Amino acid sequence: MLKILTDMIVCVIFAQGTFFARLGEDLHELWERLTAVPTSAETVLCKAVYEAETQSFIFEENSGEIAPAGHFAKLMTLLLAQEAVERGELDYQTFVTVSAHANSMQGAQIWLDVGEKITVEELIKSITVGNANDACVALAEAVCDSEESFTERMNIRAASLGMEDTYFADCTGVSEATVTTAHDLAVLCGEISKHEQLYPYMTTWLDCVRDGKAQLVNTNRLVRSYSGIIGIKACSLNGGNALAAAVKRDGMTVVTVILGSPDEDSRFAFAREQMNSAFAAMEVCTPQMPPEVTADVSVVRGEKQFCAVELENTAKILIPAGSSGKITAEYERVETVQAPVEKGTVIGSVSLILGEDTVFRSDIRLAETVERLEYGEALKRLLLELLKM
Question: Cys staple from 261: which of 267, 270, 309, 373, with CB 3.0 to 4.6 Å?
């Protein structure tokens, strides 16, 4: 009860102006310190720690367990809306007319009226900060003709990301048929982290929409205290507490997902612990190749004497911190090819080895097409060389 009263006081203070908003932040921080209790990471049911730049999982426990998605479903709504903005289909200042369907949403909401006009930007704020169901449906209908067609697109996008255990029955997560896993949510958050235009909204603690009629309070405490935080969402889920957080620092983007924490504090404590460990223990690096791996190859009877070479895979890799100097390269490739040759032809492969592990592998391919040198052209070139002599 005291926590609820504190949050209500913070919202009222925020409405009075910048000075009081800062005072509200101090009060909220004081509350956290007074109520902080030691927690154990063992109590967290489903966990995943993911590095988004390399698409690598650092740690997983029960991460494939299927659970109701709840408010986390809104993350896919957010992603699809942002992608529509970047394709030019929507603009942040585009006005959306609220439908009766959006108005009918229960639960968390900003109390939109039928026929009301509200910008895409305010709808994005309302679902990233306030988890508003009515705003989520209004945004989905702005992207597609209906929530149903939007939901179909959500499932198609989930499949494209490899979210094999996720299914969207709606765009808000109200339906218990909308399910996901900690593993899939980590992948989704990693994809969202690519869209920097969303960072200011995902890290907002207090805001308001609809000309101040609806106050928004972010339940993700990390947005005010953790270095490099870029969001993403904290909520209650299936009777427990849940968190999906993303942090960008030192060339890494670490995502932590927690489903089923027994109390609010343990999810934040576990997230801090895991992210601190990830940044201390791991690093992201771009594979460095010996020059001979990508050296040009000779072309016999080709219109060109040499052909450029490239790697099929140029992805970054995740390795233990400070170990980049211990990586060795093993490769094999042909040094001469017979014309004609086509771009993309595989001429070898390269692997990077760290200890006993292969941390990177790529085919070596031809970077261009070289046609066969015809007899007449060959004779012409020979005559020209003779004239130079």
Answer: 267
Does the pTM surpass 0.85? The reply is: no
Domain chopping of the chain, boundaries: 1-36, 37-284, 291-388
Report how far apart, in Å, the C-alpha atoms of 349 and of each of 53, 112, 296, 317, 328 are. Answer: 23, 58, 15, 17, 14
3-state helix vs strand vs coil in the chain, percent to 5: 40, 30, 35
Distance CA 350, CA 248 (A): 30
| pLDDT value at residue 310 | 97
Q: Does an H or E element contain 57, and which?
A: strand 56-61
Give the torsion through C-alpha atoms of 369, 373, 377, 378, to 10 deg: 130
Angstrom distance (rounded) from CA 194 to CA 358? 27
pLDDT tens digit sequence for 311-329: 999 999 999 999 999 999 9
The CATH H-level superfamily of 291-388 is D-Ala-D-Ala carboxypeptidase, C-terminal domain (2.60.410.10)
Question: How far apart are the C-alpha atoms of 224 and 320, rounded to whole Å?
Answer: 29
> 37-284 has which CATH code?
3.40.710.10
| Shared fold status for 37-284 and 291-388 | no
> What is the rounded distance in angstroms from the CA atom of residue 142 to the CA atom of residue 152?
15
Q: How many CB atoms lie within 10 A of CB 187?
A: 23
